[in-house]
Amino acid sequence: MTKRDPDPDSDAMLLRMKVSIVGSEPAIWRLLEVDPSLTMDRVHEVLQTAVGWRDSHLHSFTDTDPFVRLRAVNGIVREPRRWVPLDLIEDSDDDLPETDWTLGQLLTPESGPLFYEYDFGDGWIHRLELTGSLPMPANTPRARLLDGKRRAPLEDSGGTGGYHDLLDALADPGHKDHKDLKAWVAWTAGPWQEFDPEQLDINAVNKELTLLFAAPSASEHGPGSESLTQELTNRMPPGLRREFRSYLHAAGLDGPATVEADVAEAMTAPYLWLTRRVGLDGLSLTAAGWLPPAVVREAMTELGWAKDWVGKANREDQTLPVLQLRESAQRLGLIRKIKGRLVLTSAAKRLLDDPAGLLLFLAQAVAHRHRHDSERDAALLLLLEVAAGKRSGWADYLEAVAFGLEALGWRSHTGAGLEPNTVQALLVDAHEVLLNLGILDDRFGLKANSVNAPGQAFARAALHS
User: Which helix (DSSP H) or strand (DSSP E) does residue 271 occupy?
Assistant: First the structure.
């Protein structure tokens, strides 16, 4: 959640400062204009956003480079001043709370540069150097990125030396660790932004800086008042929100979320067939609770599934496509079982002759009808990947969803990362719907998971619901 700082004085000034990662070659730097009344905890947030870190490690500010030994003056070595978050104050009597000091107090023409250390293991040292000041115009942002070069190094890449070695290995296909490091980079960078060490999107950074100081929106006043994508974004770690928002934009969520009537009828054919076959009078099941053999065979034939199925395809318990369709329709709220019969729900009765309405109903159900919050989050992340249309193999979908789930805080029972089979289990219901609608086409493991425009529109409708 964002927080709002007090409005600046009418005669306030802006500080212009250059931020450089010490030891980076080629240089990684940012030129910023910042309100000097911001406390250093807010300056930390500005730096994380502007440089592109994910705020997953500790940090501190010092008035000298922490890696440079100070010289004695008159036999006395002055101890550097250090400003840290409140939860680190108790670790040292000498540290100062960053919440009690402003940028304007610490970075002055007389002070010399400040230093910001992020990740005490990798030791990323940022030099903050004052380059000028200017009056703050009305309605000006509290922080703004003017210029810069190159994206932030990858988190946990070993400091400047380790990061430079990593880039060298990535650029050399013959390097002994090239393949392993490439895989590590893909996972660490994540699925929402391709790793490019030269990339810097100044406009995207400034949008995030604006949001950082925005007044609380209406969506923060109560549950249920924000969109699904807003809610997911707000739950992401702050350092990942810019990447996630950029991916939401790339997924075209502001694009069309409707499907032509004839296309909707073709997509919903399995559910239409089943609900119409059950009909207003209902459908009797066998004594064992299965669909009658003739109905199973009819489903496989009329839905075009028999040609790819080995066997008689007349027993529901041995004909997975039909069994899964029936179970999916029950979970989605289209049919229910009462006293040995399948009957339509009131929603299904209204949609028997409305394929477009049925498609919208299914989109809403995929987004909202889940047995556990982890299944819901997994389904929403899968829908985002479908809307983006950038994945092909199912393993790629699982990897992307796993990254998103871990960013949202989900872990395995052991605390380790999520394995593909764990993510697969969370996606069983959503995956089945996408298969039945023809959005994913690998029901029998024979094809790639290509996604067409109607499939993307369905995913957008679900995420908008």
Answer: helix 269-278
CB under 8 Å to 44, separation ≥6 — which residues? 59, 61, 85, 98, 116
Tell me how far CA of residue 79 lies from CA of 14, 95, 106, 150, 225, in angstroms.
Answer: 30, 11, 16, 34, 51
pLDDT at 79 over 90: no
Residue 141, both tokens: 């942002």
Question: Given the DSSP bridges, would you call strands 96-97 and 82-84 parallel, antiparallel or unpaired?
Answer: parallel
Look at residues 401, 28, 37 and name the one whose alpha carbon lies nearest to residue 232.
401
E strand or H helix at 336:
strand 335-338
CA atoms within a 13 Å half-sphere pointing along the CA-CB vector of 138:
0
pLDDT of 451 higher than 90: no
Of the candidates 116, 114, 179, the one whose C-alpha atom is nearest the C-alpha of residue 152 is 116
pTM for the whole thing? Answer: 0.84
d(C-alpha 296, C-alpha 298), whole Å: 5
Contacts of 432 by beta carbon, 8 Å cutoff, 6+ apart = 324, 325, 327, 328
Q: Judge whether 153 and 124 are in contact, CB under 8 Å.
A: yes
What average pLDDT does range 95-104 have in this prediction?
96
Q: Are 35 and 202 in contact (CB under 8 A)?
A: no
Q: For 158-174, what is each residue's pLDDT tens digit?
A: 999 999 999 999 999 99
pLDDT reported for residue 218: 46
Section 255-268 average pLDDT: 90
The dihedral formed by the CA atoms of 227, 190, 246 and 395, expressed in degrees to the nearest 10: -70
Q: Which amino acid is at 259?
A: V
- State pLDDT tens for residues 382-417: 999 999 999 888 889 999 999 999 999 999 888 778
Q: Which of 155, 236, 186, 231 is nearest to 404 (CA)?
A: 236
Alpha-carbon distance of 286 to 76, in angstroms, equals: 93
